[in-house]
Design a protein that fits this description.
By secondary structure, the protein is an alpha+beta fold. It has 16 helices and eight strands. Helix 4 packs across helix 5 and helix 9 runs antiparallel to helix 10.
């Protein structure tokens, strides 16, 4: 078992972020470009980004702004972003900062375009002043800088070294369903501070979303429906409420940080909070809960390695599958039952696609959480969807490989159509 490799991967893939990761990645690239440019008066900011990045940055609220958009994220990054903080680059925004960024946009200093690239995650920002220019490219991961160019001088160029997202990388070969299970059984809880932090941060924002009015108030509506007797106060509804409440708050501009998974805060939320909610109701020990949340997040990481960080498929289906595995573990399931839970989830949620980051993501998280609990209960009862059905294979590993094929081979046109619908709808929307 690659003990240290697993710990390193958890630290790499589980990162604290403030707000949606795509706007933060744009702000990060812009802040880094501004750091390298000479002169203080910015004359232009040009952003080119992949379709997947743009669709995830169009509508989601940037924390502390009540606004959204690629242009706003870039402007704020240039004005006040601290790239050294990674995905917390816009921590500490003030209303004055927001007003200044909006003036930059009104003065047409910020332009945005779709990059001609095969990469799902690609951001290119060029910042110009009267004296100088600086170009920064981030690709494949949200804070992975692959190019810095200043006034014609290349400081960093790793573009040719980058490989597309997806399965098959040698450095990922140690991650399998069997090795994940073995690690979860043997890992010392003292080495899982990142998981403890995920439980703490994501539970805090979940409770925030259940208490105050954010977005569509999905979590709060479920909670109120329980109080009114419309819904029952069971494992599924409580898990749905807590998970959706966190997404409600996060996607609507809450300034509370979350622990992300594989580059997504919502995936971090939905890989963690359904397990936390079920663990709370089952009154499990703290150690068992931590192991269950570890299992959930590692399964989510494993699936995301197959489908890529950004895809036409909704990432909550991956993190929801992880959550189902964690819940199965809490219910007393072993490795066989966990693999059955994966099969049940892929037979249910695979068709959910991503139409951008937005407040409505809370609904998708609630749906995947509902499915996660049901899939776990079925697995515990010895029920698993059969290999004769759809993309399901005889083993869970091959089913996940099929999911990866859908993400890479089957989603290109879907991505194009989704972005076309979103962009044209946005243009037609009255001001």
């Amino acid at each position: 078992m690659d003990y240290e490799k697993f710990l390193e991967r958890l630290d790499k893939e589980m990162v604290v972020t403030l707000g949606c990761t795509e706007p933060m990645a744009i702000a990060f690239a812009a802040a880094l470009a501004k750091k390298h440019v000479k002169g203080e008066i910015v004359t232009s900011v040009r952003v080119l980004a992949s379709a997947n990045v743009i669709k995830n940055a169009m509508a989601v609220i940037i924390p502390g702004t009540q606004g959204s958009g690629v242009n706003l994220a870039a402007a704020l990054g240039v004005l006040v972003g601290d790239f050294s903080k990674g995905l917390e680059v816009l921590t500490g925004l003030t209303p004055r900062n927001v007003d200044e960024a909006k003036r930059m946009i009104e003065d047409k200093l910020v332009t945005v375009g779709v990059a001609e690239t095969t990469k799902k995650l690609y951001i290119e920002v060029v910042v110009e002043t009267f004296q100088s220019y600086a170009k920064v490219i981030v690709a494949d991961e949200h804070t992975k800088v692959v190019l810095i160019e200043v006034d014609g001088l290349t400081l960093i160029n790793k573009l040719t070294e980058n490989k597309p997202n997806g399965s098959g990388r040698k450095e990922d070969s140690f991650i399998t369903l069997d090795s994940i299970w073995e690690f979860v059984q043997r890992v010392q809880v003292k080495d899982l501070d990142i998981i403890k932090k995920a439980i703490e941060l994501n539970t805090t924002i979940g409770l925030e979303g259940l208490t105050n009015d954010y977005g569509l108030q999905v979590g709060k509506t479920i909670k109120e429906s329980i109080r009114k007797g419309i819904l029952t106060d069971d494992l599924i509804t409580y898990a749905m409420a807590l998970t959706a409440g966190a997404s409600d708050a996060r996607m609507s501009g809450s300034t509370l940080p979350v622990m992300s998974n594989s580059g997504s805060g919502n995936q971090g939320i939905s890989a963690t909070l359904p397990v936390v909610a079920v663990g709370e109701r089952l009154q499990v020990s703290n150690e068992r809960l931590i192991r269950a949340v570890t299992l959930s997040n590692l399964i989510a990481i494993y699936i995301k390695l197959k489908i890529g960080r950004l895809s036409a498929l909704c990432g909550a289906t991956a993190s929801g599958t992880g959550a189902s595995c964690g819940i199965t573990y809490l219910l007393g399931g072993g490795k066989a039952e966990i693999k059955s839970a994966i099969q049940n989830m892929q037979g249910n949620t695979t068709g959910m696609f991503c139409d951008g980051a937005k407040v409505g993501c809370a609904l998708k998280l609630s749906s995947c959480t509902n499915a996660a609990v049901l899939a776990a209960i079925m697995a515990i009862e010895g029920i698993a969807i059969q290999a004769t059905d759809g993309i399901i294979e005889r083993n869970a590993e091959q089913t996940i490989e099929n999911l990866g094929r859908l993400a890479h081979e089957g989603s290109r046109e879907m991505d194009r159509v989704i972005l076309d619908i979103m962009v044209n709808k946005r243009v037609a929307r009255p001001s």
